[in-house]
Amino acid sequence: MKLQKLYSYVRQAVDDYNMIEEGDKIAVGMSGGKDSYTLLYALSGLRSFYPKKFDIVAITVDLGYEGFDTSPIANVCKKLNVEYHVEKTKISQMLEGKGCSLCARLRKGAFGEAAVKFGCNMMAYAHNRDDVVETVMLSLMYEGRFSSFEPVTRYDDTCLTLIRPMIYVPAAAAKNFASEQDVTVIKNPCPYDKMTERTYVRELLNGMEKHAPGTKKRMMTAVSNSLFSHMRVEENGLAKTDNLG
Predict the structure, then answer these.
(1) How far apart are the first and last CA of the chain?
(2) What are phi and psi of 60, to 5 degrees?
(3) Spatial separation of the C-alpha atoms in residues 233 and 241, rounded to whole Å
(4) Scanning 14, 33, 66, 174, which has the fewest C-beta atoms within 10 Å of its C-beta?
(5) What is the 8-class DSSP label of residue 241?
(6) Lowest mean pLDDT among 29-38, 45-54, 83-92, 236-245
(7) Across the strands, what pairs with 62?
(8) Who has greater pLDDT, 15 or 236?
(9) How far apart are CA 107 and CA 91, in angstroms?
């Protein structure tokens, strides 16, 4: 995926859901995975030409696993002229096999605290299009509900707003972009990585995509036109038309 195509995906999401306002300072969550690198490139480029001026700060939550090297992220941030911080925690010691849900809550809490500490009013997660449809499938299969995380979430208790600018970016495109940029993808140090229900659903959806190409795109269109329709910016009284590539 070329840089201009990435900008197109991300700008459409930002415009559709009014994610960014003038003067925002956005904390970008940097795990060192392909999606977080792609988000960093997208927002660092977008800030140079988007009509509403904003700034970004890259933050990595270090869970405390031995040998976790953040220098590749630091090098990319330096290249893109992005402020970078590593928030060290002892989350790994607090888990002791207690599961992914607790880890996720602790990571989100540490990231939010770091965002406030460094003067941010916004947080950005690198969830992509596949993450959206996977979450819908998980909700249907295990909860009996048609639901997913939203493009924009406001937290009154912290005065922070969470945005997901990559919800239109296919996972394969993000992976391809990261490879083209020759960034060093950091392996998740968690011993339970890839041992989740989400992994099963991801493989299931990949099988569906092979059987009926375009399945994920059509699912994303359905989600955008139903679950997210109330959040989308309207033009002339009508919701914007999808163009999800």
Answers:
(1) 12
(2) -110, 130
(3) 11
(4) 66
(5) P
(6) 236-245
(7) 88
(8) 15
(9) 8
Residue 36 · residue 125 · CB < 8 Å: no
φ, ψ for residue 134 (rounded to 5)? -65, -40
Alpha-carbon distance 10 to 155, whole Å? 22
**For strand 238-239 and strand 234-235, is the pairing parallel, antiparallel, or unpaired?**
antiparallel
Question: CA 124 to CA 229: how far, in whole Å?
Answer: 21
What is the 8-class DSSP label of residue 230?
Answer: G
* 3-state DSSP of 71-133: HHHHHHHHHHCCEEEEEECCHHHHHCCCCHHHHHHHHHHHHHHHHHHCCCCEEECCCCHHHHH
Q: Give the β-pairing of 55-62 and 234-235.
A: unpaired
CA distances from 120 to 29, 83, 96, 123 (A): 12, 12, 32, 7
Q: Is 242 helix (H, G, I), strand (E, B) or coil?
A: coil
Helices (H), the chain: 3-16, 34-46, 71-80, 91-95, 100-117, 129-143, 171-180, 197-211, 215-226
Is residue 2 within 8 A of residue 45, CB to CB? The reply is no
> Rounded mean pLDDT of 97-120?
80
Q: Which amino acid is at 9?
A: Y
What is the rounded CA–CA span in Å between residue 58 and residue 44?
Answer: 10
The CA-atom distances, in angstroms, between 127 and each of 49, 51, 140 are 23, 24, 19
Mean local confidence (pLDDT), 203-210: 94
